[in-house]
Specification:
The chain is an alpha/beta fold. 26% of the residues lie in helices and 30% in strands. A hairpin with a 2-residue loop joins strand 10 and strand 11. Bound molecules: adenosine-5'-diphosphate and magnesium ion (MG). Magnesium ion binds next to helix 1.
Length: 253
């Protein structure tokens, strides 16, 4: 269905030159924001492919363009130049309506600030998202996967930051999306809570065969990835395959 390409060795496999589907291709992508009399070139000349079932970490300093990039991939922002083909669709050319469908059907989102609805319980937050798609995971199963079964009836205000982020992960996986986008999911958490959240994200890639693209300013977190993409001043400065990705529990900062 999509382009075929060659990806090299992945963790847990000894298969070289395994054929991988490309889910999303960016070519010559640029994004300008108007600013005063001029523009800010938030992204310039981005060429990138995202493969099925890979764990990609995009890292770079604050202001380097990471959120802008992930927002464009998620269909939440538009591009100024170049092209993005996602799941066979040219996102620059499809209607608003189709873009909404694209976001709804294909993508699970995890944000730094959890973005849970405060007046819904953990379970209701997950149910709300499950109701958006045709073939969701069982809501209780999604909550169980993030270890929150005994907290399902709690409101976000009654949960710690780490627990709220785990609800957000349940909400992202309940759609059974092909792609999960996570923007600095641990930036508001302490080290121990960050590791917990990252462990659940790691399990999604391994057990649910989902592609995860995670953005972070923390270079240590990049060590978990199958591939790391370094971005600085709106440009990709390095794409590296990681032969020996670390487990979340082995990260130290
Ligand atoms: P990061 O997520 O890496 O911290 P961002 O993608 O948020 O970086 O921002 C990249 C650049 O684009 C920054 O200079 C930022 O100020 C600018 N920018 C981001 N969003 C907007 C916006 N909506 N309007 C104007 N400038 C923006
Ligand atoms: Mg950001």
């Amino acid at each position: 269905m999509y382009n075929k390409n060659i990806l090299f060795q992945r963790k847990g496999t000894d298969v070289l030159n395994q054929e991988k589907e490309i889910l999303i291709s960016l070519r010559g992508l640029g994004k300008d924001f108007p600013s005063g009399n001029g523009v800010i070139n938030a992204l310039q000349n981005i060429d990138l492919d995202i493969y099925e079932n890979e764990f990609m970490v995009i890292h770079g300093e604050s202001g380097s363009g990471k959120s802008t990039l992930i927002n464009i991939i998620g269909g939440m922002d538009t591009l100024t130049k170049g092209k993005i083909i996602a799941f066979g669709q040219d996102l620059n050319r499809i209607s608003e309506r189709d873009l909404t469908k694209y976001r709804r059907k294909n993508i699970g989102f995890i944000f730094q600030n959890y973005n849970l609805m405060p007046n819904l319980t953990a379970e209701e937050n997950v149910q709300y998202i499950a109701d958006l798609v045709k073939d969701p995971m069982d809501v209780k199963e999604a909550i169980e996967k993030v270890g929150l079964t005994d907290r399902a009836d709690h409101f976000p205000g009654q949960l710690s930051g780490g627990q709220q982020q785990r609800v957000a992960i349940a909400r992202a996986i309940v759609k059974r999306p092909k792609l999960i986008l996570a923007d600095e999911p641990t930036a508001a958490l302490d080290h121990a809570r960050s590791i917990e959240v990252l462990s659940f994200i790691e399990k999604i890639v391994k057990n649910d065969k989902t592609t995860v693209v995670m953005v972070t300013h923390n270079a240590e977190i990049a060590k978990m990835a199958d591939r790391t993409v370094k971005i600085s001043n709106g440009r990709i400065t390095q794409i590296r395959e990681n032969k020996n990705p670390l487990h979340a529990e082995d990260l130290v900062w």
